Amino acid sequence: LYSNSFATTRPKYPATRLALHHFDVAYGSQLGPLWPSVRVALLCEKKYGALINNFSHHDAMAELQLQGCKDFISDTARGGEEVSQSDLQTTSDASVHSNIKCLVFPEETSYLPLLSRPDSDGLLGYYLMDAASVLPCLALDVREGHTVLDLCAAPGGKALTIMQTYDLGFLCVNDSSVSRTMRLRRVLQSYVPKAQLSDAKVHISSFDGTMWGDVERDSFDRVLVDVPCTTDRHSVTEDDNNIFRKNRVGDRRRLPQLQTALLLAGILAARPGGEIVYSTCSLSQQQNQGVVEQAAHLALEQHGIHTQIVDLKPLTQKFSNTFHFAPGLSVGEMVVPHLAANFGPIYMCKLRRLT
Ligand code: SAM
Fold this sequence. Notes:
By secondary structure, the chain is an alpha/beta fold. The protein contains 14 helices and twelve strands. α8 (157-163) links the parallel β5 (147-150) and β6 (170-174).
């Protein structure tokens, strides 16, 4: 009797399989001949990067370098001997002004130790994340004294990355989920000294980001809009909290609308002349280019705000030894998973607010 009732309640198709089927249809036509290799990589073990915590006294960088890891940012920013003169000219506009360091193993088969040791103040030496997640933070190009808003910030990998840059003027980190905001707070407390988290420097909130315009407009130098999405890698590998579950169909269908509202709120929050980076961890054209075009259109139609897309090619060219970028995107740049560089997917697009 038990096994019968169990059999009737177990979903016929697990969410991971529904996700894969959905992606086969959508990405098969969107990515064409690239899709089979991206599909295999999505289903294989992903690679991590170790974001070095500059606030820790513990020299995690030296420790990881001894094991063969390399900082993909400074290695590329310095330019290797193998970089040709013409490569140097194309990338010279895209010098990476930051103190962000992210270590990866150059070999596909080596994995980073999952645990980072605390220093004498209890601060951890590195944060493990998809190394491609650092790219939207580099694209944001945060400078000393900037005011920055991270509209969808939990669990905090990108906020922590942004905090590794210069002395910021002010950082607002927000996430509508109260439980995830608590996790974000714990992450920041494990990596950043108390003095750097004072009310004068960092503000943590739990607003619905689509309503940010009611809180504050026209003010931030930089805004990161790292939206909820179909989290493609998670969706094909984990049944827990999977957005392809039958009972979450509505959530999934509403995603592009929510993403557009969040990006529009981000554009409104930036000051004229300020810059906004939109990012997802999905390959979906509808959630990526589609959302950017729609939000830029609404900003103009509803608010008279002109925006301009900033070309990120000079930045991505610098990192083409570490990541596989999708060729020929008309709007934004995208890291596609590849067996030899199993990072991503990460989509990013940068907008400058002109008026
Ligand atoms: N930026 C984060 C990081 O690097 O760790 C990851 C952000 S995750 C992709 C998207 C986040 O958006 C989730 O934490 C979710 O709770 C949050 N979110 C969903 N709807 C939101 C809304 N309306 N306003 C603000 N945050 C929202």
